Amino acid sequence: MDQQILNAIFIGSIYALFAVGYTLVFGVLDILNLAHSAVFMLGAAVTYSLVVNHGQAFWLACIVGVVVSGVMGLVIEHVCLRPLRRRKAPPIAALISTIGLALIIVAAIEQGQTGSFFAWLWVDGPNSVAFPAGTFPNPTWHVGDLTLEAAKVAIIPISIVLMLVLGYVIRYTQVGRGLRAVAENPRAAQLMGLDVDRMISLTLVISSALGGLAGILFGAALGDINPYIGRDNVEVRGLAVIVLGGMGSVPGAVVGGYLLGFIEVGALVALGSSARGGVAFAALFLMLVLRPQGLFGAQLRERI
Amino acid sequence: MKRLHLVSWLAAALVVAACGSTGGGGTSNTNSYSGKTIKLGAILSITGAGGVYGPQSRDGMNLAVKQINNSGGVNGAQIALTINDDASLQPQSAQVAQKLIQEEQDLALLGPTLSNSAVAVHPLAESLKTPILAVSTTGINIVPNCNAPSTVPCKYVFRDSLGEETAIPDNIKSYAADSHPSTGVLLVAQDDKFSSDGGTIVQKTVGQYNINLLKTIKFNKAEADLSPYVTQAVQLKPDVIFITSLGNIPSKIMTEARKQGWTGQFLGGNGFNTATVSKAAGDAGKGARSASAWYLGNTFPSNQDFVTAYRAEYNKDPDQFAAQGYAAIKILADAAKRANLTFTDLAGDRDKLRAAMESVNIQTPLGPFQFTSTHDVKQTVWVIAMDGVGGFTLVHQINAS
């Protein structure tokens, strides 16, 4: 196996984990939550800050990072989505309000410098930082020509297990049935006695917690945490992933994530480095032209 | 009566001559400068990608200002320096420059930190006829063609930083002479002027030293996952990997390449030349070579004083960026001293300062300093190698030709 295949699987796992949260919200609400990339960054920033600025253990910081991201999901619902839903605003209004919240979150982190109001959250302003060596065990193994770095290798099973758990919850549990009912027809779900608002809040919490975790894994493995990691690395790619996989489809997001990882790395190997981004989005364009519903769009009768 | 007339004329002539010589000798400067303020504005990347360089430039500048002001200022005038962060962003850099020139009415500017920002800031300073001294920009066409592709030389733009067109070839030449590498791969951030200029220089240079450039691998500077690019470079098994990027990119590439088992030589540019980068690269960067405008242990007369004062002030060692920032203030102070500033006619004073800068001839930590006819530097180049723990060791000293 080539190192590049491993690189593709690794980055594909991040894309998939990020996009699952993206697509979950779309599946339930028919709304693109563009604050998702800011939550991705926030998870990484909070975890880094707890470890480096507040002296907490890495594992504890990770848990807090995921919890804060999940709570941010509630903020998105209560600030950006629910008030608009109450007023029956069109989906584009919700999309714009999530963009607004994303900008606020990024700006808050950007302003976080020693002595500033946000210093408790972040002190490195727009600078890029990395977890200091030794924060978590990160041995590197060499198997033949392959280099396996623990922090990157760990992302693959973590992502797969979490996505399987999510798939199980959606398909086989009562909560999952509730989510699917809301996704299918919120009014009918409400008439059947489901608390739709609660289900939507839960969707945002799960989605944001996964997004935050993806950010933490990304920051830990790549040694690059700054206010823009979400915007620069996963925001648009996440959209590409859910379009490739089928808007609103969780299995589609998983497959789309890995597919994008392979397309990007494949383009780099086959066509040269400057083609990487272009080819990935050419594939997206092709998909939109040939199969607008995405890979899993037609096969799935049910949403999410 | 005739004799009286002659004596009167002679006396008058002597008075005029005396006044003239006083004006040229600088005594009257003291009078007109005394109690005045020389306003300078520095545009530096304190945060963002250039945040690993800007703070050192700032510290060097502040030290020089403090020293000058404490020892009586410039002919009695005090220097007021403001440090303005451009967050490493080109548009912000230009906005700050405009504000400093037009609203703050600074006499001269320093910076910006990044070549990428200089392409917006320098033409602006040129068009507004304000002298600007670049302290760390090393890309192509910083001086004299700040309005490239126009080849009309910019009159108001100077730099005290060593251009990559000198530094990178010197570095490659010295390594080629030492180790005779035969193959190389270039990693370049295609969307950054500094990095792509450095890449162009590497491509132009390697052939002269029989190094076969196997591949140029381009990426975007915001890309966090550089592993596929590094894998591609490592799989070609080159003797040398050239890195012309800045900020945290060199250390990320070095760390990843070493993890992937590559044991060859890293050669780079000005982006390597600060302790922050050397420290971030750690053991992975040990031996990585670059050509620097300054070296901690250089024996130029004013360097020792600079290093001692810097350590006393900041409790740490200076680096190249601190030395260039420090030298820049000394250069502007020397020019201001000789410029016969009026402090009433800003446009005239800016012009006088610009003219005086062309004839600067002082000792700095960078060595004896004069601008070339193209407002560039001609100086000793130090080939240095990262020591694996955040510092550098001297490999070669190349004297100015």
* CATH topology-level fold name of chain A: ABC transporter involved in vitamin B12 uptake, BtuC
What CATH calls the topology of the largest domain in chain B is: Rossmann fold
| Number of E-state strands of chain B | 14
Helix-strand sequence of chain A: HHHHEEHHHHHHH
Based on DSSP secondary structure assignment, what is the total number of beta strands of chain A? 2
Mean pLDDT metric of chain A: 90
Fraction of residues in helix of chain A: over 70%
Assign the CATH superfamily of the largest domain in chain B: Response regulator
In this structure, how is the largest beta sheet of chain A organized? 2 strands, antiparallel
Q: How many structural domains of chain B?
A: 2
Strand content of chain A: under 5%
Strand content of chain B: 15-25%
Into which percent range does the helicity of residues of chain B fall? 40-55%
Q: How many distinct helices of chain A?
A: 11
Low-confidence stretches of chain B: 10-28
Oligomer: heterodimer
- Could you list the spans of chain A in which at least 5 consecutive residues all have pLDDT below 50? none
What global shape of chain B is seen?
Answer: globular
Q: For the residues shown, what is the average pLDDT of chain B?
A: 91
Radius of gyration of chain A: 19 Å
Q: Main β-sheet of chain B: number of strands, strand sense, barrel status?
A: 5 strands, parallel
